[in-house]
Amino acid sequence: MAAEMAEQPRVLEALLARREEVADQVRALAPAAPAGVVLLARGSSDNAAHYGRYILEQHLGRPVSMAAPSILTRYRADMDYSGYLVVALSQSGTTPEIVTAARAAGERGARTLAVTNDAASPLAAACDAFLPTGAGVERAVPATKTVTAQMVALAIVAHALGRPGAASADLTGLVAGVEAVLGDDGPAARVAQVLGEVDHLVVAGRGPAMAAAMEGALKVRETTGLVSDGVSVADLLHGPIRAVGDRTAVCTVDVGGPVGPDAADLAARVAPLAAFTLGCSPRADDDLPLPAGLSEAAGAVAATVRLQQVALALARCLGLDPDAPAGLSKVTLTH
Q: Is it true that 2-161 and 174-317 share their CATH fold?
């Protein structure tokens, strides 16, 4: 996991270097603005898709939704996808329900785009076009470089299809920002010591930061077994805050933008309830500092990497193998 995390600057730099080439391929697939975009994914890819939803919707000005794969694979609903772009994400490209659902969406009128790490995968073959993330082989069970590559790939799709002048897919400084995060693992090590004292972790963000929060919580849960919930700041206030108690740590993720202040408001709200309140933001004095000056889109990717560090550090503190968590496999075969 650590070695694959360290590859992220190279992977993201290479993907961004192909930005215009990839954008041209996306425009060829969808020469006219789609009526809407449907994102099809599971697991970590689903968290990347949540990031993409925020970026795409702002950039395109069209509705973007998360698909429920079973609507197509089990319920076999007679959906009309005419005029829609369906983007199917899978690290391996072999998850049966994602492959089946992507193929079914194409049969129902959608233009389909696969975002995967394997050009020879069934998903790449099932879709009209293929966007390779180019992350290289990923052996650790917890996905790291493939997730951030998917996030950047979706930002490139937004760039390709978006309205001129939209700034929501601005990834300026991202590679250097990720390098800076990876070059400083001290904050994650200190937070891991704190998390060793709790039974429950809540990671909360809003906007693109919510995707980072969800993925960070999943990484901690996968690598350590600590009960970890990644949630929207707004959703946490609608009832789940009741579960925050003196054995809970709450980590807020703030990468700026219109919803950034909501993270600080939540931190103040949970401080009297939680054992620990932690912050991940561009503030230099925060528990998990992020590089300053990044856009909201780039900051969410950097936050995802920072939270990967926390999961890795906590697993090591607990004497666990982060590369091969008990009971998990690299490819999950859901249908």
A: yes
195 backbone dihedrals φ, ψ, rounded to 5° = -70, -20
CA distance 22 to 102: 20
User: 222 with 144: CB under 8 angstroms?
Assistant: no
Contacts of 323 (CB under 8 A, 6+ apart): 1, 139, 140, 141, 142
Token pair 């090590």 is found at: 189
Q: Give residue limits of the domains in the chain.
A: 2-161, 174-317
Which DSSP category does 81 fall into? -
Identify the bridge partners of residue 231 per DSSP, sorted by sequence position: 204
The CATH number of the structural domain formed by 2-161 is: 3.40.50.10490
Tell me which architecture the domain covering 174-317 has in CATH: 3-Layer(aba) Sandwich (3.40)
How buried is 176 (Cβ within 10 angstroms: 0-12 exposed, 13-18 middle, 19+ buried)? middle
Q: What is the pLDDT along the chain (335 residues), one digit of tens a residue?
A: 999 999 999 999 999 999 999 999 999 999 888 999 999 999 999 999 999 999 999 999 999 999 999 999 999 999 999 999 999 999 999 999 999 999 999 999 999 999 999 999 999 999 999 999 999 999 999 999 999 999 999 999 999 998 776 656 789 999 999 999 999 999 999 999 999 999 999 999 999 999 999 999 999 999 999 999 999 999 999 988 989 999 999 999 999 999 999 999 999 999 999 999 999 999 999 999 999 999 999 999 999 999 999 999 999 999 999 998 888 877 877 88
* pTM, 2 dp: 0.96
* C-alpha span between 209 and 215 (Å, rounded): 10
